[in-house]
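Batch job 17 of 40 flagged for manual review because the log was empty.
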Amino acid sequence: MTETPKILTIDDDSIVQKVVQQSLKDSYEVFAEKNGNDGIRSAIDNTPDVILLDVEMPGMTGYDVCKHLKSEESTTNIPIIFLSSLSDMRSRVLGFEAGGIDFLSKPFEPSELLVKLKLITTYIDSKRELKEEVSKATNTAFAAMRGSSELGLAIQFIESSYTATSLQSLADKFLSVTSNLGLNCTLMFIGRKERSFYAPNDNAISPLEQEVISTIHDNKNRFIDFGSRTQINFRRVALLVKNMPLNDQETYGRYKDFLPTMLGSTDAKVQSLETEQALIGQTQELGASFAAVRSTLIAVGESLEKNQNDIVELLQSMLSELEVKIPKMGLEDDQEAYIVKRIDTTISSAEEIIDSSANTSHAFKSVSRLLQHLAEKQKFLLDSVVQESSANAADDVSDDEAEYGFSGEIDLF
């Protein structure tokens, strides 16, 4: 025991009091009282390590005093040794039933008393050490259980993040975990075009706080500590914890190990969501482009076909008119033959051009059909992605109801 053990003697026999005082003065601090009431008061005030209690006293007996001391919360664990001139079994049994730990018959040798006290104080020391070890083991077990619980939260978050279909739903899942841990956090996602900020329960985030988080993230250090705040940075995500438990270094260290696990998964999910949204947008734009090109080709083909028909009608009209006019012109035979031959040659050339245009029109239609096929496949792909995204969102609702140059160093502001 690091402090001098305290012994309280409750005995109306002054000789016994002197014997005890002389025997114990070198190793113990001794208090003495002559009756039960004063002994109880002294035990409460001084909290002795051991009480030597006479059985036969005027007023309250030693058994009554022992029972009273054992009923008090402040004195219930103090070992009591009964002192008595009676050494029969009945007296010993009564002492045991009252709560005594040992029995010493009067008269006794000082050496006998010292041996009993040494055994009891050794027992007290062992009991205290055992209690401390149990306390340490209990704390270790609770710390292990807390760590296991936090790891379970991280695993659950990572699994549920697979179904997140937007940055908002991803942020809600993350902040739900940190709120359950009692952490007040702000989350920032770094997209290709902009940065978005999220807080629990959609609380407002001041422009200054947004600027601070962005500035700290751009320093490219993994951990930044300033006061009770800690910011953890990844390429596409940053987390500001505004109430880190600085007075509990064990918990503080666990959080610094636990939160990056979730943030690493979140960083990958942010990239996945952005890529998915970019592909959906690209698919929609490509589908729209296919439709526009197809419409243009159809219009060009229809216009070409109409022009062909107009040329044929024009030639036929001209031929009919010449058939009527030429005989009336009074031309020589050779002149008439020349004109007819020239007209025949022109019509033949026009027919070849029309046939070539027909082939072009056919090619336009073939390309148009191909574009239609590609547009349908593109739409099918887009519909599949959107349907899968919607299904994940529905599963997400149901569940709710039931390194980019960042160093591992810690900066201090």
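Reviewer: the log was empty due to a logging misconfiguration, but the result itself is present. Residues 249-325 form the longest helix (77 residues). Unflagging and moving on to job 18.
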